[in-house]
Specification:
heterotetramer, A: alpha/beta, Aspartate Aminotransferase, domain 2, seven-stranded mixed beta sheet, 13% strand, C: 524 residues, alpha/beta, two-stranded antiparallel ribbon, binds pyridoxal-5'-phosphate, glycine binding (chains C, D), pyridoxal phosphate binding (chains C, D), glycine dehydrogenase (aminomethyl-transferring) (chains C, D)
Chain lengths: 475, 475, 524, 524
Amino acid sequence: MTDPHVHPYIPNTAPEVRAEMLAAVGAASVDEFYADVPDGLRLGRALDLPEPFAAEQDLERHVSGLLARNVPTTERLSFLGQGTYQHAVPAVVDEVIGRSEFLTAYAGEPYEDHGRFQALFQYQSLMGELLSMDVVNVPTYDGFQATGTALAMAGRMTGRRRVLVASDVLPAKLSKVRDYVRVHLDLEPVVPVDGTADVAAVTERLGDDVAAVWVETPSRTGAIEHRLQALADAAHAAGAVLVVGTDPVGYGVLTPPAEQGADIVCGDIQSLGLHQWYGGAHAGFIAVHDDPRFVMEMPSRLFGLATTDVPGEVGFGDVAYDRTSFAHREEGKEWVGTAAALWGIAAGVHLALMGPQGMRDLGEVLLARTAYAQRALAAIPGIRLTDGAAHLREFAIDVAGAGLTANGIVDALRAEGIEPGVPAGEHELVVCVTEMTSQRDIDRLAAAITGLVAASAAESADTLDTVAIPEEHRA
Amino acid sequence: MTDPHVHPYIPNTAPEVRAEMLAAVGAASVDEFYADVPDGLRLGRALDLPEPFAAEQDLERHVSGLLARNVPTTERLSFLGQGTYQHAVPAVVDEVIGRSEFLTAYAGEPYEDHGRFQALFQYQSLMGELLSMDVVNVPTYDGFQATGTALAMAGRMTGRRRVLVASDVLPAKLSKVRDYVRVHLDLEPVVPVDGTADVAAVTERLGDDVAAVWVETPSRTGAIEHRLQALADAAHAAGAVLVVGTDPVGYGVLTPPAEQGADIVCGDIQSLGLHQWYGGAHAGFIAVHDDPRFVMEMPSRLFGLATTDVPGEVGFGDVAYDRTSFAHREEGKEWVGTAAALWGIAAGVHLALMGPQGMRDLGEVLLARTAYAQRALAAIPGIRLTDGAAHLREFAIDVAGAGLTANGIVDALRAEGIEPGVPAGEHELVVCVTEMTSQRDIDRLAAAITGLVAASAAESADTLDTVAIPEEHRA
Amino acid sequence: MSLPIAPKPAIRRFHQARWDEPVIFELSTPGERGVLVTPIEPGVRDAVGDVVADLPEGLARRTPPALPEMGQMRVLKHYLRLSQENLGADLNVDVGQGTCTMKYAPKVNERIITTPKLAAMHPLQDPADAQGALEIIWRTERMMAEISGMDEVSLHTQGGSAAIWANIAMIRAFHEANGEGEQRREVVTTIFSHPSNAAAAKAAGYDVITLHPDADGYPDLAALKRVLSSRTAAIMVTNPEDTGIYNPAIREWVDAAHGVGALASYDQANANGILGITRARDAGFDVCHFNVHKTFGTPHGSGGPGTGANAVSAALAPFLPGPRVVREGDRYSVREAGPLSIGAIGPFHGVVPNIVRAYAWIMALGADGLRAVAETAVLNNNYLMKRILEIPGASAPYATGRRRIEQVRYSWQELFEQTGVGSEEIGVRASDFGMHYWTSHHPYVVPQPFTLEPTESYSKAELDEYADVLAEIAREARETPEVVRTAPHNQTVHHTHHDDLDDPDRWAITWRAYRRKYPDAVGA
Amino acid sequence: MSLPIAPKPAIRRFHQARWDEPVIFELSTPGERGVLVTPIEPGVRDAVGDVVADLPEGLARRTPPALPEMGQMRVLKHYLRLSQENLGADLNVDVGQGTCTMKYAPKVNERIITTPKLAAMHPLQDPADAQGALEIIWRTERMMAEISGMDEVSLHTQGGSAAIWANIAMIRAFHEANGEGEQRREVVTTIFSHPSNAAAAKAAGYDVITLHPDADGYPDLAALKRVLSSRTAAIMVTNPEDTGIYNPAIREWVDAAHGVGALASYDQANANGILGITRARDAGFDVCHFNVHKTFGTPHGSGGPGTGANAVSAALAPFLPGPRVVREGDRYSVREAGPLSIGAIGPFHGVVPNIVRAYAWIMALGADGLRAVAETAVLNNNYLMKRILEIPGASAPYATGRRRIEQVRYSWQELFEQTGVGSEEIGVRASDFGMHYWTSHHPYVVPQPFTLEPTESYSKAELDEYADVLAEIAREARETPEVVRTAPHNQTVHHTHHDDLDDPDRWAITWRAYRRKYPDAVGA
Ligand SMILES: Cc1ncc(COP(=O)(O)O)c(C=O)c1O
Ligand SMILES: Cc1ncc(COP(=O)(O)O)c(C=O)c1O
């Protein structure tokens, strides 16, 4: 700031004010304030950054110009899932979380930030209804973190190390959870059968050193676990905790895990009213029963109802603040900080808009479209479903029989503007459909893949021709 | 509504509530409420409308799909003006007018709508500073209406019929104004000279039957009137009112008409912080001195400062409400109703953001880019400027000398993604540049037109070849 | 005290945000900037030199405009604070602005229009680049034609009153084209039709005849017949009128007008109660208009921009304003106004963002939905009427015992006689409960009037809340009238003194006028 | 009274909006709908039948979730009302949240990100379709590298504490890769470093050693040297610390850590005061992070999502989380995490909208602008300190007479001793003036603490207003302490009883738990 540099974002760059303030504090220059920064540590040059765009119109043109190079899912036909999902986001959700008061707030008290406390208490409560659970946290970062913490809680509660991983888990999630808990817990995969948990194998591996059984439903490939109660019973018999990782989007029609013995239910709320944002809009929930043994292990903030001096006024405050690292640094549970409150507010608005009927309709349309897509793709010669479980939103196909690879399909269909799914092995493709995917969209995917299969069959027939039949034998 | 039809926009379509309400009012069916509507007037069938999209996601896809067929100026290089201008709109402006509280408000009292009153009082005041005038209305519909009303005011004040139109006016504006005032006033054009008013001719035509001299600056072609004071003096000498129609965008650098004798200044504020909206974001201002003879002729609402019971509180209210048709129906001045308040709030925010320096910088960049574009185009062989006046933002070129037509240029350049301007005659093209038009943009336009001129020259040379020189004489 | 939380009292304990912000000029600090302008390129500057210095004599502004100098965040903060000091339909139970009550303006429509694909469109672009906008305008016109039953529609006007002006302008042009321009100098309206009908007719040069209702509050057909003559240019009426009473003889009114060669113009600004039930055409009207911002769910923007839909019979169609959007095959283009047209009524195609919103609103509802709008609006209105009439001191003059359509003009006359507390005081007090409340247009034909119009947008619980608030204020008027008289108490500002506003020596319509008139004022 | 308007009092007469809204469940009406779901196509239904009935035994939910049933406008209204009951940085003089004060989050950045070109991008799309997003991520990483002086940057974490976790996770992986994982079991931090450093280290399995400052409040180098050993994995420190004091011996701290083979991790969540002045690299750090939501102008979202920028030296780079954005020529692509990487720290690339906002923020300012941010932040801080220290009863313990960097931890101890009014009570009272106010992390090393951090975003007038409010409350503490003790008075709600919140039998963390525990409660 050798030259005066008045910037709209920095009011006190106005030269007169700056001079007045320096005079008021008796400083000859701003440099005095840096007396404690040794010369040797001073950068001593300007940062080497690109030329800025001081005028808003130029800035906008520049950044929007970069973003214009993106081709979003609204301009493609997308069957991509695997952690981030394309769901309808009601405009009211965006309106609420776009309000300056929520968007730019941080950490006020339950007075001047009453609205934030109420909105987040309501989020907790709405999620509680969806999940049939009495305690839900103010969201943590994402479903990965929520799961890591849920398992860590089980570890602390039981004092044990082993965790049986009964389901197929997204690799990135597994990576995060493993690194997160590895000092305290060992993850042991128990290979699922036909898409869902192998209850017998899990039961067999259980013992008094098992902290938790971890079930994912829907699983990595969208399979819905249908023997949760049996897993819960087995886990509980061994003194272990049943941790269920899930996506709450289906619980308008599906029985929530809490009604089938789950102790901790956790996951991500991106499906509840958040845009895809290139994977940048995730938030994690952790739900438990109203049991202090569990509650006191939660690191996140929990907002609770309170009375005020005025009858009928709804007040709020932090429940059991002493759990947190804010209160007790390393003696708190893990840590708490800026997490994902705004996404929690969004999910709350979304659930309030959807209501019981909306969530039911949504669950049903997801199940129906998933089933339809499964049939449509499995009907293509050489393509089969990888398992026989019930699926929500995602399912995997094995394309080996069609002489195709998953990557081959992706490459070929991208050229047609279709993202057919996410490869999960040479021949495995995970396909995702949501309420945004119409019957026509699914039919288009099926037709495109059918076309590929036909072409590949023709080609391999050709290849057969050219390879199998020596030149001299041909007509 | 033969079938229950629960719609998110209509809460009391919920069947239970509907039944409860019908019971409460003792009606067997909704039909009872229509007892006064004779059978013969009943439609008796469903309206013939397209199938609706009840789900928000489907509605959005449909309408956004239609809008996706638009190719906006952000994807074209646009030199279009003639009433609607492409200016930078600060994001803060959109934020403020997007606030639910302003966007969905209507006509509350100065208590519960204090914010609206203050925002509009501030708009009036900010415009007052820009225009150096003490009274500015809550915006009327657009600059056309503002001008019609300004002239009608002059007519009522003077009791005279003649209006001398001293400038070149946009045809659509002239059409509106003429139809608006024709019962009361006769418009007489006085042909401008070299782009601006012919002061001598105006003076000569003035008489004690002239209600007003109407000057437009910038004119239809962007020419800045530079002899306002002379026109004012002449008008005043004849007892006529000087009405100046203008675009306020330049008054950071230009002397405001009020300082050169204007009695009523009016125009459109689209240039002050409003997007183009396909021509759908106009609002009209009328500014006068603080003289009750003028003020009492204004039909619009005027918000004024007031005290309250509490010292230091800033209160507001309607000034001279008795002027209005709200108060006295046809005895009020013209009429008042829903007009363009939100755009006024926007313009106020815009002026507050720009400040004196911003408006100065803007005016300067407009003058500079205009001059640059004039030079760049006039440098093309065969193309000349239509006048020698100083111009703001728009100017006209005559392309006859280049063997081109205005429409020909438009057609040719549209194929290159350029909107070169608005034809205003066979050979006249009105070109507009703003702060959004960079030097490079102007250079691109000049190069494209140069290319056309060259092509046309080559072609006419060809034509000359083929036409002028008889076959037998050719080599 | 500890949990549980006690029951809430019957009436919401409201307080509006109060930020005590000064007028923006007092927030100025020399040198601060709110937004920067793109710089002039060196190449441009080299080419053109000092353009300001080069201006013709006297054209360069000498003293900069005294706009405030403020950092961006401070401007934003100021206006956000002001916004909290404003109620919008999104915030309150906005049923107290009848005849102009605001219904729900769906947020999805805001999202839909917020795209450069609409906001960055210039109206003179190649129509090939504007097919989306043109198709939506065309479709919306066609839907409005079906809803009104008329033949052609223009969406050019920016408000209901502007649409009324367009109606009378077309009527005037029609008579002139028929050579009857000189002869037909009168327009007939009713006292419970919106004042803009009278006012626009007057502005168009007509003498205005205003009829009062019959003893039951119904428009008086006999009175109409008495005033109609060959001098009549048109009748211009609202129906249902401001009282919420539907004129059962409306067809006879129109026929009577036609009988003398006059045209019939229908102000159905607010058609909420009759969508899909009955149409302007069915009663024989020649021309009518809707307030799109009242009937078709576009937001009211603190008082505009609105949109008027002018719908006309085939006979009037040549007089519609131009330019017109036309369809050829599946392409849309723009045609200039024809020779009989009243010409441009405003710039280009009207308030395009509103047209798109209205299109989306209709497309979200369809024919069944529109009918549900109407049925629910009248149900809500009659329900609210029942609740209001239960309040001692409130009445609904006229048409006693009959149903109303979409609104009711009520009276506090009885309460006023008993307590001395009048309708305007009650309105101010209503703001203490977070409610808008409007009395009536002038003149107050109904004494101590108030006008409520629930539309379809508010739930029964909200209508109950509104009625409860009025009942509470009526109780206060009897028991603690001072509380009402000294209101507001829970508002942004307190009781405001409006006596300066009618005195030219004292009014202050801009900050600069204030500073000039009150040089000793602080901040001035 | 008539014009002119009297001068405003020194202190703003604030009242926050009060809507007295019930908890949303109490607004439910059976049958209302907020938004409709797209219907299942007949073709799909025919093909798949009743998918719910076909679910495996026990999987179909028996009783629907007891979510509220509400029309769309009522949901909107409820949340808009709640929003008015919340202060955001856009609304208040948000300097009272130090160490976490919010600066201005420019609105243009909200406009820039609000496009399907960003919001509708799926993270697994063809990178060819995501060049804009990838390029912005890449460029932002490079700019953060320059600003920190480090070699490589990851923007994956969603908050400052998450970034601290990533720091310690990388440190742990580094030592393990070097075979010292078992040996190095301790992490050293200071009491005025953010508690997440201690907490994350503990969560990663380390023993935490917390150092207190020397008598002057400076970090105690001698104390550090005493605890460092071959068991030390890392030092994790904030600088300037929560006190606003910059550790002049920071290089010696880092060297000492390196001397025992430990790594040095720098929490520069809030680098406001030192941008362009000094860098993590300059002091020799191995790893550091910025809170993008504190330093780079992204909004705080009521408590997230934020974004952490983890910057590391080349030696630590292999341990950064994956996937990584890589540039080849002028194309950008995504590379999976390498073998040493700590792996995924969260889904995909982090909070992408924040990354774009931060990119835009830096590009609006450039090197000069960043330096202006730093200089103005420290100027503001020292100016505010002067104003605060003029208030009788307020002090700034430690480093007396010296300047502070971007914030100060103050104390009301003297006022408390004189009046019995403590810092937390003052904080509640501050809300009556529309101000946030924060005390300090626990434990309260500074007695009766409060922490102010003005950043660069607030004008002198606003800083003065904040100081005036505290002076006023201090005056009240002496003259009318009951006013402070019974605060708030001008707020959405009144003094709240927090005793139920620590009792498992009485707390109510969801509405369903409340209804279960308090079955007789109204509405329950
Ligand atoms: C019946 C009627 N006509 C006309 C109008 C005037 O409409 P606007 O306010 O849009 O000018 C209104 C609304 O105020 C109205 O209710
Ligand atoms: C110095 C410092 N470190 C870490 C943090 C934690 O950041 P976050 O709230 O994003 O988790 C903060 C802010 O609270 C901070 O100020």
